[in-house]
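Re-run with default settings, no changes from the original entry. Doing this only to confirm the output is reproducible before filing.
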Amino acid sequence: MAARTGKEFLERLSNSRPTVHVQGETVTENIQDHPAFRNVVRTYAELYDLQHAPEHKDVLTYTSPTSGEPVGTSFLTPKTPEDLVKRRQAYKVWADHSNGMLGRTGDYMNSSLMALASAADWFAQANPAFGENIRRYYEKVREEDLLCTHTLIPPQVNRAVAGTQQAGGKLAARIVDEDDNGIVIRGARMLATIAPFADEMLVFPSTVLRGTPEDAPYSYAFAVPNDAKGLRYIAREPLDYDRPRHDHPLASRFEESDAVVVFDDVHVPYERCFAIGNAELCNGFYAKTSAVVHMTHQVVTRTSAKTEYILGLVSLLTEAIGIEQFQHVQEDIADVISTLEMLRAFLRAAEADAELNEFGVLTPAWAPLNAARNLYPKLYQRLPQILRKLGASGLMATPTEADVVGPAGTDIATYLQSATLTGPERIRLFRLVWDTCISAFSSRQSLYEYYFFGDPVRMAGAYVKSYDREPYKARVQAFLERA
C-alpha cells in the first residue's frame, strides 16, 4: 500500500475496535463518528489527502525502496543534506495545516521509527531478533502508512517514589508473564495523545531505569495494535464542544484527545518486541539511536509554524484595533518575532552542522535542537499572554455566530466594528484570538507545550549535566592566570 488518502485512513479506522472510555461512555466502534473525535479525525484525514495534492505530493512523499510506491517523507532515511531539507519541508506542510496545533501528527513517531530501524544493529546486541523486529516494524508502518502514537510515563500517584514503585509496583505497566510466543503486560501508562483514533500504540521506555532485578519487568519496548485485546483507554473530557467553527475555530478542528492507557494482561507477540528486560538498552533507546534528534527536528519545525501563526494573529489584532503605533505593543510583537527567528536559526544550524551517525544516517546537530526544546516550553507561555494583553477587554465581548446573524446583528455591526474590520469580521478574528489564548483548548495547548519533552526542571538538570563546559572553564581559568 502506498501513502494513504484521507478516505483510506477513515476506512481503516472504521474497521478498528479500540476500547475507549470517554465521559462515562464506552466506545468500541465507529470512533471516527463519535462527537469527541470526529472533527479532529477529519483534520487528520485532510493531512493524508495532502500527500496526494499536486502542490504537495513531491514534498510529502518519496519512492519506497521496497515497493516502489510513494510513501510518506517522514519515513525517509536521510543520507544527504537535501534529504534533511525535504524532511523539514514535509513537516512544515503538515504543521502549517494546523497552525502547529497538532502535536501528534504521524510524522513525529515516523521520525522516531526511521531512526530506530536504522539502528537495528544496536538492538541486535541484546538479541538479533530485536534488530529484525524493529526493522520489519518500521517497514510495515511505512508501507501501510499507519498512524502511531506512544505512551511513556507511569501513572502520577506518588511522586515521592519512582514510577516502578508506585503502590508497591502494582500500578505502572510491567511484564507479568512470558511464554513461547511473547510477553504479557499489566498496569497503566500515560499520556497517550490521539490514542483513541491511532492505528498503533508504541510503548517505549520512559524514565531512567536502574538496572536492578526489580526494574527488569519495567524495561521494555514494543508495539501493539490500537485495538489489541485487553488494551483500553480512559480519555479526558473533550474540548471540542461540537460548536460552529466560527465560535471555536481551533478546538473544532484540532482537539487531540489525551488518554490514560490500561493494559489488562495484554499479550504482545515477540515479533512486536524491540527490548525486553534490558535496562541498559532502554536507557539508551533515544540517545544511542539518534531517535530523539530526529523527533526534535520535527518538533522544532512544528513550533516554528505555530509561532508564525501567532505572529500573523497578533499582527492582525494590533492592526484591527489600531494599537501597533504604541511602543509597548511593538515590544510585545518584537518578542514574538525574536522567538520565531530563534527557532529558524536553531533549525538552520542543526541542518548545516548535520553529521552521519554511526549507523550511516545524516543526523541534525543536537546542540541547537536541544537548546530549542529546552527554551520553547517556556517561551510559548509568553505568546498567549501577549494575545490576552493586547486583546484586553475585547476578548471578553466575543458574541457567537448565532448572535452575528441573529437579532443582535445590527448592534454588532455598529458597536463591535474595528479600525479596519466590520463588526462580523472583528468578531471572527477575536473568536480566533480567544481560542488561541483564553479557551480551554488554549490552556491545554500551553500545558502540552510546557511538558512536551517532560518536566522542564528535570530537563534543565539533564541539559546542564550533558553540556561540555570544560573548554569555557579552561579559558576563564587561563585568563585568571594570565600574567
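The CA atoms of residues 7 and 358 lie 40 Å apart. The mean pLDDT is 95.
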